[in-house]
Every structure is written in C-alpha cells, then in structure tokens.
Amino acid sequence: MSATRLAALVASPLAALALAGCTQESAGPAVADFAIDYPDYPAPAGAPSPPCAAASHAGSTHEITFDERRGGPLWISGQNDDALVRLAPDGANPPAMQFRQMPPCSGPHGIAFDAEGRLWVTLEFLGRIRLLDAEGRFVRDFDVTTGGVSPHPHGLGVGADGRTIWWTGKTAGVVGRITADGETSSFALPTRDGLPIYIRAGPDGNMWVTELTGNNIARVTPAGAVTEFPIPTPGSRPIAIVPGPDGAMWFSEEAGSRVGRITAGGAITEYPVPRDQPNRILAGLAFDRAGNLWVQQYVDRNHPEPGGTDVLIRIDRAALAGPPAALRPAHFTTFPVPTRGTVMHRIVEGPDGAMWFTEMHADKVGRIAAGPAR
Which of 11, 230, 250, 282 stands the most exposed, by the fewest C-beta atoms within 10 Å? Predict the structure, then answer.
C-alpha cells in the first residue's frame, strides 16, 4: 500500500474510529502459537531436484479448515513446502501434527471438505484440483489448465449442495466448477484482472468471491451467472468472505481496514476496524458460535515502520446488528499475538470451540479460546 493511500485512509472520516486506537486490551484468554516444522522431501537417489527446490520455503502456511459435519482434525495448506498439515486439536501443547506430501512444486493452497467427508485442495502451481480421502490419501486429480496454462486455482469452496466444488482462477480472472459427476467448467468474471482469491457458499445458494484488485464482491449462481458488486471504499483489497449468522456474507478489507457486510441482493455496509497505526492491515475473519466476529490485524510487511504487535480483534455481536455509526470502543477487544511479523492469513472456529488461525510468514498456527457469549 502506497504512502498516498495511507494518508488517504488517515484523512477518511469513516476511519476516525479505526485510527483512534480505541480498543479494549483483553484481560481474558491469551493467544498461543506453534511453529510448523515442515519436513524436507528429498528427491529419490539419482533423481534431479525439482525446479522449485532452491526457492525459499518461508511463508508457506496458508489456509485452515476442518470437516464441520464430522469434527475431527484441522488441516492446513503449506503452499511453499508442497504439504498439508493434519493437526489434532486435543489440548496438547504443542498440538500433534502430521504431514501429507503433495507433488513437487504443486503449491497447495485452497482446502475444504465436501459433504461426504472428502478433502479437496487446489494445486495452484500445477493447475490442478486434487481430491483426497478424509485421511489425506490421493483419490483423483482434475486438470483445470487451458491450453496447458494454469489459471492458478487459488481459493476453494464447496457449493451449497455439499458436492459441487468451486475454485478461483487467480491469474485468469475466472471462477471454476467441478460438478458431482466430475465435469469441469469455468466462468469469466467481468473484471478480468480483478484477482479473485476467496470463494464461499452463501445461505442464498450462490457462491461469493472476493476480487482483491478488482475491489468487487462477485456473486456466482450455481449455473455460473456472475454479478459483481463494487465496494464503496476505493482500493479496499477484499480478502476473505464468510457467511454470517444474520444470513448475509461478511468480508475483510486488507487496505480498507474495514469488515463489510453484503446482502443477497448486493447491498454493502462497511464497519471500520480500530487500529492504532495506519500501517496495520487486515487478513481473514470468522464468526464464533456466539455470533462474535474475529478478524486478524497485522503490521504490513511492505510498510514495516512503525513496528508493532500483531493482534486478533473480536467484534461484539451487538455491534454488528446496528449501523457503523453505533460502533463504540467497548465493541472491540484486542488479543496480542506472541509472534511479530506474522502476516496472518486465515482464521476459523475449530471443532474444539477455539479460534485457530494461520501465520503465513511466520509458518505458525495459533489458537485462542473463543470465550463465552458477550
């Protein structure tokens, strides 16, 4: 984000609350985070090293999910290490972790379970979608390249039917679909260079997509009809999008320092998120079972000064029921993360009721008890 953009945010009337540093420091549960020690997968004796072997593997830890229908372990995609992490949320400190190797230079990223308990993952660098069983064993690959060129399948979501798999083609400006019978297709977004990155099913039966540089939220019907809705804040860089308990979709704005709410009809409301310095940006967001909204906030690595502590912010559910003008400092509670320079990426409420999140640059996974309803 440019210095000009930072200055514009500081001057924005809507950002007045967000720049006042008016959050409560938590006196509740502390955040813990745990290093992920990705294993090396050496090439077989006599075989050449893969072309990506010399690349830095730092900043590998991306998406996190679990089977919401059945519970069980958490799964994390380690993109630069060509691995998935299976993590048992059993109260152990640190939690037990196992690893599943993906193909060399495949770049696993998006990850989700379907209604049958099967695990799907995007292999972004290869242009494939991989189907695994519940234990991470290979079942089948789906080639989604066009003319041998990868659209870089990035985000992955499961349709409202629990069977149709959807993915975002980050570099191609498309949203792709794999039907239950294995048929693949893709649909162009009107903003071809919008960088679609995240996709989730909404309670309306449609898929919802964030366009990082397009500054849009896209709605895609099961038949593939696409409608884009511009975000009011210019250059907001929408990141993650999730269904809320109110029937709307909620999304985070990396540069806008806001969380947005979009209705099924496309009406958008933005809520400023407090920050005590203008180089703090947002990553993922998730609701807990009490209806509070959690969002990740960290110091932008592209603008690292002034430095500071990365945090999780819990937004009280009562604050989200009213207009943005009704927000008060008491609606926000801040939880410092032990590690600095995290570049936090995604957050979910895990099967144990705690909030689990990934730290992409630090290659760690974090946990905090969600606590009682507020």
Answer: 11
- Record the pTM: 0.91
Share of the chain above pLDDT 70, in %: 87
Evaluate if residue 368 carries a pLDDT over 90.
yes
The two structure tokens encoding residue 159: 């349709």
Confirm if 87 and 365 have CB atoms less than 8 A apart.
yes
Whether residue 132 contacts residue 116, with contact meaning beta carbons closer than 8 Å, is answered with: no
Distant-in-sequence contacts of 46-51, Cβ < 8 A, 24+ apart: 50/104, 50/105, 51/105
Residue with tokens 């695994």: 132
Check residue 26 and give its pLDDT: 56
Q: What is the mean pLDDT of residues 156-163?
A: 98
pLDDT of residue 90: 86
Give CA angle at 232 (231, 234), nearest 5°.
85
Alpha-carbon Rg for the chain in angstroms:
20
- At 91, the pLDDT band (50, 70, 90 cuts) reads confident
Residue 228 near residue 208 (C-beta atoms within 8 A): no
Task: Give me the sign of the Cα torsion angle 192, 122, 238, 325.
Answer: positive
